[in-house]
Design a protein that fits this description.
- It is a single chain.
- Helix 3 runs antiparallel to helix 4.
- This protein has 3 domains: about 35 residues, no CATH class; about 55 residues, no CATH class; about 70 residues, Serine Threonine Protein Phosphatase 5, Tetratricopeptide repeat, CATH 1.25.40.
- It is globular, with a radius of gyration of 22 Å.
- The chain is of the alpha+beta class.
- It contains 8 helices and 4 strands.
- A hairpin with a 2-residue loop joins strand 3 and strand 4.
- The N and C termini lie far apart (about 80 Å).
């Protein structure tokens, strides 16, 4: 038994019989193209799908609408996974504003956003912005998970990779200033 599956993405119709694993005809207007099933289930397809959704949603919904934000989260994750750093930065900037609206101040998700954006800036050779983003990430991840957490250590490692050794020495100074003297 086979079932026909149809997916419509902003005018693109994808049809596939579940029982077979051959190519999928994609009909665009009057023409059709064959697309491999592996592509449909891949991260590339996920990013393409979310980009198409964003194009349509941006026409009718406010940029801070929660549905737009949810699509942005997936698009950001897919672009980071595919190492499409420019797209990741664009989606990350939009998410930064939305996270500020919807999430509490020291939310771990915001720290992870800054961490991934810092990595993206590093790969785009924007070291100053990468350091700024990674410092924010380290601060938020240290608050959320503790200074000795693995995520805070990852942020510190990326800071050192960017040539920012100052942040680890600043942490040592604040530890010595805030520690209680022993009796």
């Amino acid at each position: 038994m086979s079932k026909d599956i149809s997916i419509t993405v902003t005018g693109i119709i994808v049809k596939k019989q579940v029982a077979t694993y051959s190519d999928i005809p994609i009909e665009v207007g009057s023409s059709s193209v064959l697309v491999d099933l592996d592509f449909v289930s891949s991260v590339e397809f996920d990013l393409l799908f979310r980009e198409n959704c964003l194009v349509e949603l941006d026409k009718i919904l406010h940029p801070d609408n929660i549905h737009v934000v949810r699509i942005l989260v997936g698009a950001f994750a897919a672009s980071v996974k595919l190492e499409e750093w420019t797209k990741a930065i664009d989606y990350g900037k939009r998410l930064d504003r939305a996270f500020g609206l919807y999430l509490p101040p020291n939310e771990p998700d915001t720290g992870l956003l800054y961490y991934k954006m810092g990595k993206a800036y590093y790969h785009l050779d924007d070291i100053e912005t990468a350091v700024t983003s990674l410092r924010k990430a380290k601060t938020l991840l240290s608050i959320a998970y503790g200074r000795d957490s693995q995520l805070a250590d990852y942020a510190q490692d990326w800071l050192e990779l960017c040539g920012d050794y100052r942040s680890s020495s600043e942490e040592d100074e604040t530890d010595s200033e805030t520690s209680c003297p022993s009796s």
